[in-house]
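Progress against Task 2.4 (sequence-to-structure conversion) is shown through the following example record, which the project officer requested during the mid-term review.
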Amino acid sequence: MKRITLSVLTVIICHAIAVSQTLKYKAVNNDDLVYILNNIEKTTSFTSDKNDLFVKVFNVADPSGSAHTEGTDEITNSIYIAVSEDGEGPEQHLFRLASVYDPKFIKWVKTPAGPELILSYGPANKRKTATIRVTLKQLFIR
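Structure tokens generated for the chain above:
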């Protein structure tokens, strides 16, 4: 009988806690953040084997006509690279590659010096490839 009473009491308390929660929202008034989140086209991510470094990459469309190609509305993209360490109060950094024309994420490569993102970009007849090594505090582009 005690078990049934305790079980019923536990269910009632859990239900009361769940029901009493009220969802609230707050409007975000940071225009840059609103633009970025509304224009994310693609993402890719990397987590180190030891789960001590987390990398998220966001491809965000720039405004119409940002490619500055005559007679077109072609765009460039901004590539945002967010890097975080693990743990409570982790150190975090954000990097931006600006005005990248037609970027394509190719693959991640694990290296002893840190993860590397292979990225191609540029017009179809002049594509280039970049290797971006990501560390917590900086990027190395070659």
